[in-house]
Each structure stands twice: as C-alpha cells, then as structure tokens.
Amino acid sequence: xxxxxxxxxxxxxxxxxxxxxxxxxxxxxxxxxxxxxxxxxxxxxxxxxxxxxxxxxxxxxxxxxxxxxxxxxxxxxxxxxxxxxxxxxxxxxxxxxxxxxxxxxxxxxxxxxxxxxxxxxxxxxxxxxxxxxxxxxxxxxxxxxxxxxxxxxxxxxxxxxxxxxxxx
Length: 168
Hints:
The chain is an alpha/beta fold. Helix content is 29%, strand content 23%. Strands 1, 2, 3, 4, 5, 6, 7 and 8 form an eight-stranded mixed β-sheet that branches.
C-alpha cells in the first residue's frame, strides 16, 4: 500500500504519534513556505532526494535555512561517487510522492528500505518540526520524539548530520 496524505496522518494517529496538521495553499519552495505558513510553529524542513553514482538513494532532511553543498554531503552520507538529485520517476517509485511534496514522512512508502534517511541534527534539537504529510498543501508538526518513533515504525534508522553551519 502506498500512503497518501490522509492515510499517513491516520497512520501517525493509529500509532500514538501526536501531530498537528495545518492546511495552506500549495508551496513549492522554502521561500513560498515562509511567506504562506503564517504562525505554524516549529523548525521547518528542506528535503532533498538524492542519488549517488552507484544508484544508492538518500532522503536528506535539513533545516530550511541550511545552505546546501552536495559535495560536502557526500562523505557524511557515505555516498559513492558524486551526488545528484534523483529523477522524479525514482522519487515516485521509492517514496510515492511527486516533486514539491518530498517529505520525511514519505519514508513510510519506502517499504523495501532502499532509501537512506539523513536528518539535520539541528532539527532534532528543535521543540517541534514541521514537514509535509505527502502533499505541499499541508504542514504537519511533530516533536523530534514523534519523528524518531515514526522512523522506527518505518524501519529507517536515520543518520544524524551534525554539520557546522554552511557546510551542508
């Protein structure tokens, strides 16, 4: 079964993971998200679906204001060869979402464990974290403990990226 926005929220609830979801117009960039989200609490995310030269896949979830340097991510991720953005087809195949809706919660659709999840350690130190529930028209806010519980349920042991500012 591929999770949808409604079924992923039901999954969180069914598993006792507290989450608050906010509706808003579709957002496609961090700048759009910042302009439209109003007072949705918590740290907000930037999500990258990457692949290396050996076709290993990575879902990298960073604080929205963290600069991105793919070369600097290569070593911490354990990537082999260069990193690049994965294709929209691979995104849908592995995570069940379309570009613009990439989210940490999409890890639930990676039932085969083909995608390595990496989280910005700064996010896990926040009081709350906002992410898309598989659609860019909603933001779901969870605690870091809720995110950890969710990832454990999906079989993903996240790699924590504790990079100095400006080095992601």
